[in-house]
Automatic annotation (TrEMBL):
Keywords: NAD, Oxidoreductase. This is Hydroxyacid dehydrogenase. The keyword Cytoplasm does not apply. Transmembrane segments: none annotated. Residues 109-281 form the D-isomer specific 2-hydroxyacid dehydrogenase NAD-binding domain. Belongs to the D-isomer specific 2-hydroxyacid dehydrogenase family. InterPro entries: D-isomer_2-hydroxyacid_DH, D-isomer_2_OHA_DH_cat_dom, D-isomer_DH_NAD-bd, NAD(P)-bd_dom_sf. Signal peptide: none annotated. Residues 12-312 form the D-isomer specific 2-hydroxyacid dehydrogenase catalytic domain. SUPFAM superfamilies: Formate/glycerate dehydrogenase catalytic domain-like (SSF52283), NAD(P)-binding Rossmann-fold domains (SSF51735). Coiled coil: none annotated. It comes from Cupriavidus malaysiensis.
Length: 313
């Protein structure tokens, strides 16, 4: 093994796997029978880790790779990468921001529309033959309603722009007001939830947002309110969410992310007031190709000049 080995933590898109393995000789850690034995024997030869938001790179893996200089990740989220451990060793970390903004915002808006208008529920209703027995229940209007956005970053902004096309009133909560944003800043998340008809979560995951959408926030959104989450399951008190959806203390939800993916709380499977998606917001051919290209760009730039194109801030 050369001293410049590239280690790939988990499988990515087949074409990206092939390029990494054929062009860069990347070692597939997930294909090693014993990961710890492999890192014990070869860890000192690894210079770059290629991973993803899903596969991550924790402190134990970083510690097992004493010559590691860069972590190149597929995905915008980096909550599964131990940034503190990386920073302490001066390891560069890159992600794939921006190229997925539109598709994630599209799905957020799709979940919002579906949870309000019952599209997936209506589909089940028709397929089950229930239409022959009677009309579908009335649903909730979207146009002109109030949308709260938790996390007005690049994705949140795209959600706001889509909502403007539906004549929605928009307000957002961030740690502070975002310079130049034309929408109302609300410093108190509880007040935002209380005001909003819909609350869309587009903030980052990780310790700084863990449990931010608490039972109180969920209940402030209320029996007619709808929660949409395309961020991370960790941002929401999931037990409180399930209970509120079950008891009607929250009107509905559209969820692309969960605390223990791919496991989804059993209680949600039986509920018609929640739309469930398998963490698919960035999962279009176009966006995944752009993300793969950015991973390769970051890798090539680091190998050529020691710098990545899109470092994690
Ligand atoms: C991301 O890019 O972070 C997506 O959520 C995929 O994990």
């Amino acid at each position: 093994m050369s001293d410049n080995a590239i280690l790939q933590v988990g499988p990515l898109a087949p074409q990206l796997n092939d390029t990494l393995q054929q062009q860069y000789g990347a070692v597939a850690l997930w294909q090693q029978a014993d990961r710890a034995a492999w890192t014990g024997a070869h860890g000192a030869s690894v210079r770059v880790v290629v991973t993803s938001a899903r596969h991550g790179c924790d402190a134990a893996l970083i510690a097992a790779l004493p010559k590691l200089q860069a972590i190149v990740s597929f995905g915008v989220g980096y909550d599964s990468i131990d940034l503190e451990a990386a920073r302490a060793r001066g390891i560069v970390v890159s992600n794939t921001p921006d190229v997925l903004n539109d598709c994630v915002a599209d799905l957020a808006f799709g979940l919002l529309l579906d949870s309000a208008r019952g599209i997936a529920h209506g589909d089940r209703f028709v397929r089950a033959g229930s239409w022959l027995q009677g009309a579908f229940p009335l649903t909730t209007r979207v146009s002109g309603k109030k949308l709260g956005i938790l996390g007005l970053g690049r994705i949140g902004e795209k959600v706001a722009r889509r909502a403007a096309g539906f004549d929605m009133k928009i307000a957002y909560h961030n740690r502070g007001p975002r310079a130049g944003a034309p929408w109302r800043f609300e410093a108190d998340l509880l007040a935002l939830a209380d005001w909003a008809d819909f609350l869309a979560i587009t903030c980052v995951g990780g310790p700084q947002t863990e449990g931010l959408v608490s039972r109180a926030v969920i209940e402030a959104l209320g029996p007619r309110g709808i929660l949409v989450n395309v961020s991370r399951g960790s941002v929401v008190d999931e037990d409180a969410l399930v209970e509120a959806l079950r008891t009607g203390r929250l009107g509905g939800a559209g969820l692309d992310v969960f605390r223990d993916e791919p496991r989804v709380p059993q209680a949600l499977l039986a509920l018609d007031n929640v739309v469930l998606a398998p963490h698919m917001a960035s999962g279009t051919h176009e966006t995944r190709a752009a993300m793969a290209a950015l991973v390769l760009e970051n890798l090539a730039a680091f190998l050529a000049g020691g710098k990545v194109v899109t470092p994690v801030a």
